[in-house]
């Protein structure tokens, strides 16, 4: 394991994160030989959520396929969601959507089709599948460009906390362009200028602007969870391979994440598909593969880390580094530093060197 990530959600106070970070650092310092484990802070990012169910009910309200529901941004209904009216907290919703567009609620469990834009704050939609509606559920608008700020008020507070705690990197959620990365750097300020920004690519806007995002970021994460709701599922693997290849060419670290060993949340062993997914990400050229729910809420966190480690080692044993280097060369223009690094890597391979020592001015 090389890093640990904390997700900044409303349900956890800063004190909880602070104690967790301290506990990790204490454990790392006791390890022999001493390990190097980075600490990452995962921001909430720009998001759209539903309101509260009417009456504050904790039980999901059943939605019936084919029935009509009114989606509104009118604050009068933020605590009055029902099977007839659904509040969303994005004021420009009616401006960015058109008829036939889809709205996904609750990690894609509910699908609504837009039938009509009634006015600036109301839309008439059709429920496309039967499901239960709860309070404060996430919302995705596949194929729709949204204009939410890259850094929310909550993000600003979280970033200040990250700087104070000396985290090593920020996982910036829903980055759509280079300007979003710049906003986060501005929030980190002079004190946090050493903190690396890993941009999470989660929607079509991020995919379209991937070149400028890679250039502005210290690294990139292929965040397949929300991406799988924002673009067709069959295009996720294409996006994954494209982003990894572009990061390899640019010499920027790239992480592949989400549901890599999802079945191990409840099972001690992965599925055969998962046992292929992880090595294939490595063979694509990913520098890192990441566990999330598997270790955050799963029944077998240690087994998950061990399994992923074994799968990665298996892939690395058959990784063709010479072919990989040649593919990067063939992709196009590279910097002088990149050519020097390639020459050093090739020399190390030929002579069977055990390690490559790089003399650096700043360590980055």
TrEMBL record:
<dbReference type="InterPro" id="IPR011037">
    <property type="entry name" value="Pyrv_Knase-like_insert_dom_sf"/>
</dbReference>
<dbReference type="GO" id="GO:0006950">
    <property type="term" value="P:response to stress"/>
</dbReference>
<dbReference type="InterPro" id="IPR018209">
    <property type="entry name" value="Pyrv_Knase_AS"/>
</dbReference>
<dbReference type="InterPro" id="IPR015793">
    <property type="entry name" value="Pyrv_Knase_brl"/>
</dbReference>
<keyword id="KW-0808">Transferase</keyword>
<protein>
    <recommendedName>
        <fullName>Pyruvate kinase</fullName>
        <ecNumber>2.7.1.40</ecNumber>
    </recommendedName>
</protein>
<keyword id="KW-0324">Glycolysis</keyword>
<keyword id="KW-0418">Kinase</keyword>
<feature type="domain" description="Pyruvate kinase barrel">
    <location>
        <begin position="14"/>
        <end position="305"/>
    </location>
</feature>
<keyword id="KW-0547">Nucleotide-binding</keyword>
<dbReference type="InterPro" id="IPR040442">
    <property type="entry name" value="Pyrv_kinase-like_dom_sf"/>
</dbReference>
<keyword id="KW-0479">Metal-binding</keyword>
<comment type="pathway">
    <text>Carbohydrate degradation; glycolysis; pyruvate from D-glyceraldehyde 3-phosphate: step 5/5.</text>
</comment>
<dbReference type="GO" id="GO:0005524">
    <property type="term" value="F:ATP binding"/>
</dbReference>
<keyword id="KW-0460">Magnesium</keyword>
<dbReference type="GO" id="GO:0016301">
    <property type="term" value="F:kinase activity"/>
</dbReference>
<dbReference type="InterPro" id="IPR015813">
    <property type="entry name" value="Pyrv/PenolPyrv_kinase-like_dom"/>
</dbReference>
<dbReference type="GO" id="GO:0004743">
    <property type="term" value="F:pyruvate kinase activity"/>
</dbReference>
<dbReference type="InterPro" id="IPR001697">
    <property type="entry name" value="Pyr_Knase"/>
</dbReference>
<dbReference type="GO" id="GO:0030955">
    <property type="term" value="F:potassium ion binding"/>
</dbReference>
<keyword id="KW-0067">ATP-binding</keyword>
<dbReference type="InterPro" id="IPR015806">
    <property type="entry name" value="Pyrv_Knase_insert_dom_sf"/>
</dbReference>
<comment type="similarity">
    <text>Belongs to the pyruvate kinase family.</text>
</comment>
<dbReference type="Pfam" id="PF00224">
    <property type="entry name" value="PK"/>
</dbReference>
<dbReference type="InterPro" id="IPR036918">
    <property type="entry name" value="Pyrv_Knase_C_sf"/>
</dbReference>
<dbReference type="GO" id="GO:0000287">
    <property type="term" value="F:magnesium ion binding"/>
</dbReference>
<keyword id="KW-0670">Pyruvate</keyword>
């Amino acid at each position: 394991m090389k890093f640990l990530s904390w997700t900044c959600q409303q349900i956890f106070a800063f004190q909880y994160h602070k104690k967790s970070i301290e506990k990790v650092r204490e454990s790392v310092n006791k390890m022999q030989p001493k390990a190097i484990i980075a600490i990452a802070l995962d921001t909430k990012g720009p998001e759209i959520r539903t309101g509260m169910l009417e009456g504050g009910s904790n039980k999901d309200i059943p939605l019936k396929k084919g029935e009509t529901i009114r989606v509104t941004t009118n604050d009068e209904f933020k605590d009055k969601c029902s099977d007839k009216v659904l509040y969303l907290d994005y004021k420009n919703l009616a401006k960015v959507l058109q008829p036939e567009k889809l709205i996904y609620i609750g990690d894609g469990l509910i699908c609504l089709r837009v039938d009509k834009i009634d006015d600036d704050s109301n839309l008439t939609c059709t429920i496309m599948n039967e499901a239960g509606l709860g309070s404060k559920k996430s919302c995705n608008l596949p194929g729709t460009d949204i204009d939410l700020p890259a850094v929310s008020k909550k993000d600003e507070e979280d970033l200040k906390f990250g700087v104070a705690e000396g985290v090593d990197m920020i996982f910036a959620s829903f980055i759509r362009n280079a300007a979003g990365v710049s906003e986060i750097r501005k929030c980190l300020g002079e004190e946090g200028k050493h903190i690396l920004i890993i941009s999470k690519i989660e929607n079509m806007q991020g995919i379209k602007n991937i070149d400028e995002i890679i250039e502005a970021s210290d690294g990139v994460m292929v965040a397949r969870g929300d991406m799988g709701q924002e673009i067709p599922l069959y295009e996720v693997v294409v996006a994954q391979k494209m982003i990894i290849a572009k990061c390899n060419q640019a010499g920027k670290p790239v992480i592949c994440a989400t549901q890599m060993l999802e079945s191990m949340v409840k099972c001690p062993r992965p599925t055969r598909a998962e046992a292929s997914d992880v090595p294939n990400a490595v063979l694509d050229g990913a520098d890192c593969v990441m566990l999330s729910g598997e270790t955050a809420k799963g029944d077998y966190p240690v087994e998950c880390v061990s399994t992923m480690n074994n799968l990665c080692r298996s892939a690395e044993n058959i990784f063709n580094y010479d072919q990989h280097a040649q593919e990067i060369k063939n992709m196009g223009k590279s910097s002088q530093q990149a050519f020097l690094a390639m020459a050093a890597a090739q020399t190390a391979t030929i002579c069977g060197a055990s390690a490559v020592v790089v003399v650096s001015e700043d360590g980055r």
